[in-house]
């Protein structure tokens, strides 16, 4: 288990119950059986605001959709569940409404913080404390799971995050000049310190003979307007180390790409649609990775037969 940026006392005090989002998942010491199985949820994005019907975004419906997904996941023998970011869309009170829903989840829960989460957190902290970093790793016997923080270098950082926001502005300007599609203010990047930590985790996993799975909010591939600002660099790194799979949210349309022996999976957003409840269960046994989609989520089998 590794969490190199634990909350300081002031951050913990200001965040209150929301600080639990930075806790490492309480996973078991070993998988339930020979097949690793975990659940995935992306972008519930709750807010107490009216739906944007033109864009098919139903903010309040998370309080009805998320319990359905959790109930279905509770019925399956899973090692853990990951929410791939954007638990809320805006407003601090949104966390107060959505966190009790997760108390119904019976499985260990790993949280990835999305751009809307980060913006809401920063507004609440109001320059009294820095936006906390949220990259970490956890393990099961023979498996290492790495969570990257795409808000590390972003416009969501505040004045106490050093030059992180300035770095994001410089990266956005450079990408815009080169007409790269991910040059959008709602995207962030992984900073150099985090990149170094990620490669150290990959090297250690390689030495230990561990399989690696990666989770993040911002997609790394295929290349589009929702990618991590430096997603190409990270995608190449994960492919070079033959990561089993990389899972993200953020792009509510979903998506899939393959680089070398690594599959990059983007889950559909739960926010979209009045009634659809997309989520997935991933099973990995040997060299086979199977994503079973529910509620409109796409299923995948890798390698394809």
TrEMBL record:
An MF annotation (GO) of this entry: hydrolase activity
Residue span, Calcineurin-like phosphoesterase domain: 37-253
Organism: Erwinia billingiae (strain Eb661)
TM region(s), chain numbering: none
SUPFAM superfamilies in UniProt: Metallo-dependent phosphatases (SSF56300)
InterPro entries noted in UniProt: Calcineurin-like_PHP (IPR004843), Metallo-depent_PP-like (IPR029052)
PANTHER family: MANGANESE-DEPENDENT ADP-RIBOSE_CDP-ALCOHOL DIPHOSPHATASE, PTHR16509
Pfam families: Metallophos
Name assigned to this protein: Metallophosphoesterase
């Amino acid at each position: 288990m590794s969490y190199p940026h634990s909350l300081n006392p002031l951050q913990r005090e200001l965040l209150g119950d929301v600080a639990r989002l930075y806790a490492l998942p309480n996973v078991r010491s070993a998988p339930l059986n020979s097949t690793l199985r975990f659940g995935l949820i992306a972008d519930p994005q709750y807010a107490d605001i009216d739906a944007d019907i033109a864009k098919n975004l139903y903010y309040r419906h998370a309080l009805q959709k998320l319990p359905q997904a959790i109930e279905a996941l509770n019925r399956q023998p899973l090692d853990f569940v990951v929410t791939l970011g954007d638990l809320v869309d805006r407003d601090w009170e949104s966390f107060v409404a959505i966190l009790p829903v997760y108390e119904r989840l019976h499985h260990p829960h790993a949280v990835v913080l999305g751009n809307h989460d980060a913006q809401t957190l920063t507004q609440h902290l109001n320059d009294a404390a820095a936006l906390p970093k949220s990259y970490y790793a956890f393990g099961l016997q023979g498996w290492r799971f790495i969570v990257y923080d795409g808000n590390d270098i972003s416009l969501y950082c505040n004045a106490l995050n050093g030059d992180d926001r300035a770095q994001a502005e410089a990266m956005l300007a450079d990408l815009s000049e080169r007409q790269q599609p991910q040059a959008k203010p709602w995207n962030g990047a992984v900073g150099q310190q985090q990149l170094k930590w990620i490669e150290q985790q990959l090297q250690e996993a390689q030495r230990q003979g561990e399989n690696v799975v990666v989770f993040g909010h911002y997609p790394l591939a295929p290349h589009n307007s929702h990618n991590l600002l430096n997603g190409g660099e990270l995608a190449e790194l994960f492919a070079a180390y033959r990561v089993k799979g990389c899972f993200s949210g953020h792009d509510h349309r979903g998506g899939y790409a393959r680089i070398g022996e690594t599959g990059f999976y983007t889950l559909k957003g739960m926010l979209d649609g009045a009634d659809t409840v997309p989520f997935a269960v991933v099973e990995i046994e040997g060299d086979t990775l199977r994503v079973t989609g529910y509620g409109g989520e796409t299923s995948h089998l890798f390698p394809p037969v």
